Amino acid sequence: MSFQVETGERVDVRDVTAEVAAAVPADVERGVCTVFVPHTTAGVVVNENESRLRADLTRALDSIVPRGDGYEHDAIDDNADAHLRAMLLGESVSIPVADGSLDLGTWQSVLFVESDGPRTRSVEVVTTRS
């Protein structure tokens, strides 16, 4: 199953937990849900969905991989920082499933991280039974 995420900023962090949870079949007693972002300038992480932490993430990405820092790839399309940020974040996460639900910790959420927006992005969700 897949769903779309609309981003409004160049760097944008969106909570997609509800959309991912809706894609998990209710009859899966035990399994693993894989969330995959098929884009080279966006990523997905599991962490707390708190506004200051989302701002801190954006700030940290800006600090670690600043835009326009003389990257070779910028000669092609001026978004090397977005590619590098996505590589650091990762393109997928795996989440345990128990009784048809994501088995996340109390403060954990699935966060989609855009690094080259605004855009419309796809997120793929696959649940396997164990």
UniProtKB/TrEMBL annotation:
Listed transmembrane segments: none
Xref: SUPFAM superfamilies: YjbQ-like (SSF111038)
Coiled coil (UniProt feature): none
InterPro entries attached to this UniProt entry: UPF0047_YjbQ-like, YjbQ-like_sf
Pfam families, per the entry: YjbQ
UniProt similarity note: Belongs to the UPF0047 family.
Protein name according to UniProt: Secondary thiamine-phosphate synthase enzyme YjbQ
Higher taxonomy: Archaea, Methanobacteriati, Methanobacteriota, Stenosarchaea group, Halobacteria
